[in-house]
Structure formats: C-alpha cells, structure tokens
C-alpha cells in the first residue's frame, strides 16, 4: 500500500482461526472500511488466512464485496431454516446445520472424500483427511488476485505448521511468492482437511501451534507508531459450563483462544523494557554510548507507540461446540453484523485509537477493560 508522508502509523489487521466464525472477521473488516481504516499489513491463521488473502488480493473498493462473495458461497449449502427459531429450537437448528456440513461438506470449501480415508491406500493424499479441499483452491483462484498480493501493495502473512519438524512457519509476501497453496496450508486442520505440500514439505493448520499471529507482528522491528486490530474468534474468558455440551464448547474456546490479554501484557512488558533501554542509552556519556554493548543494545530498542484494539467474538446463546463448522446463511449474517457492531462500539474511542495522546507508549482497547493507557 502506498504510504503518504503524513501517514506515519502502520495499521495491522490480525486474524485468528475459527472456521465458520470467520464471518465475524469479515464484518469487522466492513466496519473498519466504514471508518475509513485500511490496513497496511494483514496477518492471519486458518480462516483468518483466507479472509486476509481476500483483503490483500483485491483493490480497496472491492475487498468487502469479495469477502461477501466468499461468505455467501460457503453458506449456500443445504441447511435447516433458522428464521423464526428461538431458544432451544435455535440451538437444535444450529446443530442440524453443523451436521449437514459434516455430511455434505461446504460449498466452495471442502467436499467429503469417497471412498473414505480408511479405504484409501496408506500414504496417499486421500488417506490423510475426511474431506477434499480442491473446491477451496478453485474459490481462491477465482476471488483472489495473487499477482496483486505479490506486488506487495498490502503485506500479507499467513501461519502454518511444518508436519515433519513440528515448527511454526510464516509465509510472507515480503519474502516469498504467495500461491493458493500457502493460504490452504494455513487452514489445513487435521483430520478433517488434508495437509498441503509446499516446496517438498507438508503443512497443517497454524492453529495447531498458535491460533494468532499477534506475536509475529509485534516482533517485527518498527520505527513507526503501530495500530493493531486483533480479531479473536474464541474468548479466553467465559462462564463455568453447566452441561456436557457447554463443557465441550468451553474447552474449545480455551484451547483455541489467543489469550489476547496474556499476549498483549507480554508485549507491553517487552515494549516497556525496550523504551527504558533507549532512555538509558540516551543518558550515557559518549564514550559508553559508543561501546559495542551499547550499540548492540540500541538495535533492540524502540521509541514508537503501540495501540492494540481487541475485537473479541461473543458467543450466541444457541451456539455449541459445533459453532466453528456451522455454515448456515442466517448464522453467517449474524456473525457478520456482530463484527460491524463491534467496530462501531470500539470507535467511540476513535480519537485516542487513531491519534494516541502525547506521552502514551502503549495502549489497549477492548469492551471489557475499556481503555488502558500505559505511560513510558
């Protein structure tokens, strides 16, 4: 993205994995577009990688439309009607629709394997997953301009796990050419979806190691002020479960949550030490400031301001542990509108978000903690 002289803040959108809940991220992006905020860098994992590719791989005026095209496509399969259902009935309809996705697949995303993996030759691609993601590759090739991604206009980073080494890997258009396979690798959650081969290595969903790219973007050396929109699909906090279904859902939330506050608190500590180190180096006499130790320490310091806006999906009363593969149209639209509304609420702090007050080195915003400002 072309940066103007006056545009001195790097805007980053961080998207977590979460399957069908990813329509909330699409709503968040529409909300940001309504506020006139476009990211310079989009980082995603799993469904967040797909949404990130749809954003980075289209011109600004088409990005929301392409997101809408994708989410309309994947919510276009057979489904029980949700309109008018409420209370326990809504939950039953939701689980029926999730069961439909398991049985029939998701339009434009994945289809059941036949014969099933148990009947396929060991070591063959079909033996490693219950579904085939060839439809997803066709969808990405149709809705995403990979030449635009690789032009570097918007930075794109997606995370996956190397099956052989077990190590996390980021595919980044600032370092390599991004293809549909990189996006698919980030979302290849076993045993449902197959691993993806890239340059002789097999990769699975990045959420197996970390479900958020927040640490990755915070570790990037940057002399500019940074504004991060962190979109979480699984809340780390939640009530104690009362039933077995609620226990399964709560377990999933804890397992896949980004521990947003833990990560941001850790980043705060690192940022504070970095600023204090810079202040210390600046106060040294010249002969000490030019020492090898001081020069090496200076490369680790920063003097920029960091703002993190946390947008966390809040579960609906009818949802269960199947919420990440419940792709019905009604639920998709509810998630989308929730994302738009979350941005609107957050931008009640618009001035402080976009223009941190003087003296503020690190601040976070979320609906629970409201505003936290950390001075140097």
Q: State the low-pLDDT regions, or none.
A: 1-6
State the assembly state of the protein chains. Answer: single chain
Number of helices: 14
Please provide the ordered H/E string of secondary-structure elements.
EHEHHHEEHHEEHEEHEHHHHEHHEE
How many β-strand runs? 12
**Integer average pLDDT:** 89
How would you sum up the major sheet? Answer: 10 strands, mixed
Please compute the radius of gyration using only Cα atoms.
22 Å
Category by helix and strand content: alpha/beta
Quote the distance from N terminus to C terminus. Answer: 31 Å
Determine the strand fraction and express it as a percent band: 15-25%
Which shape, going by the Cα principal axes?
globular
What percentage of residues falls in helices of 4 or more residues?
A: 40-55%
List keywords for this structure.
376 residues; alpha/beta; two-stranded antiparallel sheet; 12 strands; 40% helix; disordered N terminus
Can you walk through the features of this model?
The protein has 376 residues and is α/β, with parallel strands linked by helices. The chain contains 14 helices and twelve strands. Strands 1, 2, 5, 6, 7, 8, 9, 10, 11 and 12 form a ten-stranded mixed β-sheet that branches. The chain has a two-stranded antiparallel ribbon with strand order 3-4. Helix 1 (22-34) runs antiparallel to helix 3, helix 1 (22-34) packs across helix 13 (329-346) and helix 2 packs antiparallel against helix 3. The longest helix is centred in the C-terminal third of the chain and has 24 residues, at 260-283. The model is unreliable at 1-6 (pLDDT under 50).
């Amino acid at each position: 993205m072309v940066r103007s002289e006056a545009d001195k803040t790097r805007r980053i959108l961080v998207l977590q994995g979460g399957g069908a809940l990813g329509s909330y991220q699409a709503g968040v992006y529409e909300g940001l577009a309504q506020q006139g905020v476009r990211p310079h860098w989009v980082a995603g994992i799993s469904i967040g990688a797909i949404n990130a590719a749809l954003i980075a791989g289209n011109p600004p005026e088409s990005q929301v439309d392409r997101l809408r095209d994708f989410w309309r496509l994947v919510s276009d399969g057979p489904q029980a009607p949700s309109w008018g259902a409420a209370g326990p009935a809504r939950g039953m309809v939701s689980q029926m629709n999730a069961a439909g996705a398991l049985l029939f697949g998701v339009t434009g995303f994945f289809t059941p394997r036949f014969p099933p993996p148990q009947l396929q030759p060991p070591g063959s691609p079909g033996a490693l997953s219950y579904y085939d993601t060839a439809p997803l590759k066709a969808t990405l090739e149709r809705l995403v301009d990979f030449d635009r991604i690789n032009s570097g206009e918007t930075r794109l980073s997606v995370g996956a796990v190397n099956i052989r080494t077990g190590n996390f890997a980021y595919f980044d258009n600032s370092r390599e050419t991004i293809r549909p396979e990189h996006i698919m690798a980030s979302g290849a959650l076993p045993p449902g979806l197959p691993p993806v081969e890239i340059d002789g290595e097999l990769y699975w969903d990045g959420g197996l190691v970390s479900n958020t790219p927040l640490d990755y973007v915070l570790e990037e050396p940057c002399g500019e002020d940074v504004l991060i929109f962190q979109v979480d699909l699984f809340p780390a906090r939640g009530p104690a479960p009362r039933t077995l279904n609620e226990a399964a859902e709560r377990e999933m939330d804890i397992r896949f949550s980004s521990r947003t506050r833990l990560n941001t608190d850790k980043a705060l500590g690192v940022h504070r030490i970095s600023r204090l180190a810079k202040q210390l180096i600046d106060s040294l006499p010249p002969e000490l400031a030019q020492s090898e130790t001081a020069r090496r320490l200076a490369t680790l310091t920063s003097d920029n301001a960091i703002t993190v806006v946390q947008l966390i999906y809040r579960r609906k009363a009818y949802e269960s542990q199947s919420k990440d593969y419940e792709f019905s149209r009604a639920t998709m639209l509810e998630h989308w509108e929730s994302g738009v509304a979350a941005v609107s609420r957050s931008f009640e702090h618009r001035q402080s978000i976009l223009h941190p007050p003087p003296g503020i080195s690190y601040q976070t915003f979320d609906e629970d903690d409201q505003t936290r400002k950390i001075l140097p």
